[in-house]
Amino acid sequence: MKYTNYMTVLGVVALVIGVNACKPKNAGNAVSGDAASKVYVAPGKYDEFYNFVSGGFSGQMSVYGLPSGRLLRVVPVFSVDPEKGYGYSEETKPMLNTSHGFVPWDDFHHSELSQTNGEIDGRWVFGNANNTPRVARIDLTTFRTAEIIELPNSGGNHSSPFITENTEYVVAGTRFSVPPDYENGDIPINTYKKNFKGHISFISVGKEDGKMDVAFQLECPGVNFDLSHAGKGKSHGWFFFSCYNTEQANTLLEVNASQKDKDFIMAVNWKKAEEYVKAGKGKKVATKYAHNVYNEKTHTATSEIKNEVLVLDTKELKDICYFIPCPKSPHGCDVDPTGEYIVGSGKLAALIPVFSFDKIQKAIADKAFEGEFDGIPVIKYDAALYGEVKKPGLGPLHTEFDGKGNAYTSFFVSSEVVKWNIKDLKVLDRVQTYYSVGHLCVPGGDSKKPNPKYVIAYNKITKDRYLPTGPELSQSAQLIDISGEKMQVILDFPTIGEPHYAQAVAADVIKNRSVKFYKIEENANPYVSKGEATTKVVREGNKVHVYATAIRSHFAPDNIEGVRMGDEVYFHVTNLEQDWDVPHGFAIKGAANAELLIMPGETQTLKWVPDRVGIFPMYCTDFCSALHQEMQGYVRVSPAGSNVPLMFSTGKNLPAPEAGGAK
Ligand code: K7E
Ligand code: CUA
Fold first, then answer.
1. pTM surpassing 0.70?
2. Distance CA 248, CA 222 (A)
3. How far apart are CA 351 and CA 373, in angstroms?
């Protein structure tokens, strides 16, 4: 067995030292003969599933079709995207505003689909920003980021954005504990134990419109909150978080946060927390965080800075939080479809503990505590434990479920997916991944109703799987058929950025609600031109506003004169098309900016500050018709103080002065 080789070769010490020995032998022939037909989606046919894959350090989310592994779209979320003008157009810049100002990048780890009654409803997908703590909501009718909210009192929003079974809350736990925003943070780093706190945010989600708001936060002990999942069914009303660095180290965590044999899963009774909020037990604290909303009618984002947040102190309000010992440096924290079993995956543990919700409840009622940690009761390990999966593999990270009583756990160090039975905790099957798998995804795998057809492994290391592309290789996903007794790898496909968590759902849940274009009569952008007759160029001091339109295959206006050095020019381009899949692009020479990519019926604005006198071509960047190459125009820039009058036209030449002389 390959597995036993690893146990002897690596040993647990290797876990701490490094992970380069993770390459299994026999990397080649993992895929058998009938695999091709299982993943083949004929030309013109749709895939059966959407797969929403976090982009990691790309900051974006990619959408794949399964089982083909075809990339359908990259949705810009936390990073600017020049391909779509996201973060470059005036309308979208506010989406990336934070209390630190404009932040054009982040690190997106977990995508989480909205649920109703514990089932994926296909309305929204949420994403977390790991660096500058934020949560995004992406609308799955438009596949656009609709809202981003920053999280106060946090540093490193990793344990996020996991949701409750009716999307009542999106929950976010801070990975890095930090001094709260309302304290003076100018303190020695080595006062971690005394001054650093871990805040958990409960973000409410509007039932109809999805609008997010930080409803309350829990102030918890300073540790690292890594991952989390909501209870469901019987455990609805509870939330579970894995915690590492219960050593509370502030330096060389590699060693100093790996001291204890057990860290914690934190169980949170959020219904209780809600009661305390209603009873006025929270305190409002001063902070600063941004809330950004994209308005579909104006095609414009607005950003608002909020100044206070409600915090509950879990040291005082004793019956909200409980710690459960969990071996060792737990990462994944996953709840099975029944809501009874909570699986903690200790990165440095040689077993997988499975906790029982019923036993946790009984332990709390019986006060079966072994003590307190920083004022929070610690439940006895055995009092909460259902049982342990013995010798499952090395470096367990994440677990998904198939709804048929089986769990699938990823093992980073031994590069495998291990299938085990939840009831008797027996390992049933294991399959090698290529290589070093992180998260797994079963469609609906963290909901009450998983679809037990595939598990997808998101692997960190790709060497020798694809043609070499220099020192950097794209990460890779592997599609594994789990419909039979034995798992079978049936496809590799490259991914964008570094995927962490991903979710998938049957295409039918989403595809029929897809917006095809924006209705021009509903366009409420203040700079819209609803037809060529209303296009114009208006000077306001040194600001020149171009109200332009695009339609196959010209801009109106396409000749503009009278712009001067020192001007700021705003091209407000409305795409007049009313048909699916006919965007127009817009770019102008020398612009310190990206293009615009304007959807039918939409208005987007490019800001341009000309840097020299001359003639500047502008053109459509999206190949929109046979005459796309004709979709172009010119802007004439004259010296500051020139007397060339502001003129604009399409299809006719206006008399204009030869050279811009001084006034
Ligand atoms: Cu395991 Cu950031 Cu969810 Cu990566 S995390 S793998
Ligand atoms: Cu419009 Cu090309």
1. yes
2. 7
3. 24
